[in-house]
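Request:
Um, any thoughts?
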Amino acid sequence: MNADLGRLLGEVGAVLLDFDGPVCSIFAGYPAPQVAAELVELLRQREVDVPANLASEPDPLEVLRHFGAAGDNSVTRVEDALCAAECWAVETADPTPYGREVIVAAWQAGMPVAVASNNSAGAVSAYLTAHRLAAYVSPVVGRAYADPDRMKPNPEPILQAIRTFGEIPGRCVLVGDSLSDIEGAQAAGVRVIGYANKPSKVEAFDTVGADAVVTSMSEIAGALVDRLANG
């Protein structure tokens, strides 16, 4: 076991998880580029001016960010359509190997577990219920409605989750698979484990100062099981 990871998990009292990555691949069966293209097409059908570069944007969250920055009511149309798409997507989402084990092991170790996600809370909750994980995870904090400036790396969703625990930020750890997760955690004063589910992320997460970096959620699950076994 990674000694630094074990030490880190021994120093915290609560676990926060990003959703898309550490828990599942939400768009595994309904690809993110398809969702993004459908959002753009919806806006074009409503005669909304869509920049040419957005037509090839593969990330639906970036489409949402663009129209949030534009400051018009198009953002609510994108938000509503994206929420619906995410609820469809979770039905064919692929569970992340050992994501479930991390959640259950943390709960068994007496550590509150929350999700702080840029996906919609409704989609996250639907996935957790379908996979019999809802009893282990509370709260679920999703993105603020039609206000993408409040998504990570804004620390607000992380701090919102922490307030329910009654823990200080430094006694919490976030597991995330993106730079926005790491930056948001650091802004919130929370420890952070970078889940490098692509080789290129290992160096990137090290560079920005993640407290620990793992390439498999099994590493975190194992460290939590050891914590439980050692009292």
Summary: The radius of gyration is 18 Å. The chain has two domains: 3-25+95-229, 32-91.
